[in-house]
């Protein structure tokens, strides 16, 4: 069974996109697609980036923990909000910390907004950063519009008929990429 790490990117007070990360964890586990773990950047609370892990003389245990979890995961889902047309500094801060850990890693991206466009303007810039480190980004996306209405605080979808099939297709593409990676 593959192990999937879900990066929850928003560290904002009153954040809403974390609901989508909770939803993916429940969805993956209840459908027995694999095991799932949320890597919550709010909990990691990394200091502002000043060097890549491989050049840090004495990295913190939190950075080492994050790196190990990215390295050992079979696939990653990144849940990110859109802030002014880009992905948040908290995510860039964490993405740039690592390098080899991203190499050949299957990564699927879910973008989130409180408006009607689902944060989709984030996709190309985030994919490009990940490509630079040779991650294998999955072509399927999972945009969430009006997140505050779509999911409750525990990650339960307001209307499961809207989200369950979409989530199944999205995760299936990640699983196919994970499978191709091991062949
Ligand atoms: C600094 C900032 C910039 C934002 N810019 C956008 C934006 O460009 N497009 C958009 O659809 N929503 C934007 N939003 C609203 C987010 O979509 C909203 O906060 C949503 O709940 C996801 O972010 P969260 O997980 O931090 O709550 C912005 C929010 C913040 C805090």
Q: Can you describe what's shown?
A:
By secondary structure, this protein is α/β, with parallel strands linked by helices. 40% of the residues lie in helices and 17% in strands. The protein has helices at 18-30, 41-44, 61-72, 89-95, 123-132, 147-150, 160-182, and strands at residues 3-8, 35-40, 75-81, 106-112, 136-141. A five-stranded parallel sheet has the order 2-1-3-4-5, with helices on both faces. α1 links the parallel β1 (3-8) and β2 (35-40). It starts with a strand and ends with a helix. Bound molecules: flavin mononucleotide (FMN). Flavin mononucleotide binds next to loops.
Give the spatial strand order of the biggest sheet: 2-1-3-4-5
- State which percent range the strand residues make up: 15-25%
Secondary-structure element order, N to C: EHEHHEHEHEHH
Bound molecules: flavin mononucleotide
Shape: globular
Give the helix tally.
Answer: 7
Number of strands: 5
Uncertain residue segments: none
* Chain oligomer state: single chain
C-alpha termini separation: 15 Å
Helix content: 25-40%
Structural class: alpha/beta
What profile does the largest beta sheet have? 5 strands, parallel
Average per-residue pLDDT, rounded, comes to 97
Radius of gyration: 15 Å
């Amino acid at each position: 069974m593959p192990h999937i790490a879900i990066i929850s990117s928003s560290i904002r007070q009153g954040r809403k996109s974390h609901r989508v990360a909770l939803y993916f964890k429940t969805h993956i586990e209840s459908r027995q697609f694999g095991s799932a773990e949320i890597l919550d950047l709010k909990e990691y609370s990394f200091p502002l980036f000043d060097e890549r892990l491989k050049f840090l003389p004495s990295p913190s245990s939190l950075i080492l923990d994050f790196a190990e979890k990215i390295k050992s995961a079979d696939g990653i889902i990144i849940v990110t909000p859109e802030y002014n047309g880009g992905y948040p500094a908290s995510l860039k801060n964490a993405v740039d910390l690592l390098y080899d850990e991203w190499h050949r890693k299957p990564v699927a991206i879910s973008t989130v907004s409180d408006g009607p466009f689902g944060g989709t303007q984030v996709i190309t810039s985030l994919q490009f950063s990940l490509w630079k480190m040779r991650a294998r980004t999955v072509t399927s996306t999972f945009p969430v519009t009006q997140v505050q209405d779509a999911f409750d605080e525990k990650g339960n979808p307001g209307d499961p008929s809207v989200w369950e099939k979409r989530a199944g297709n999205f995760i299936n593409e990640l699983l196919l990429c994970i499978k191709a990676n091991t062949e």
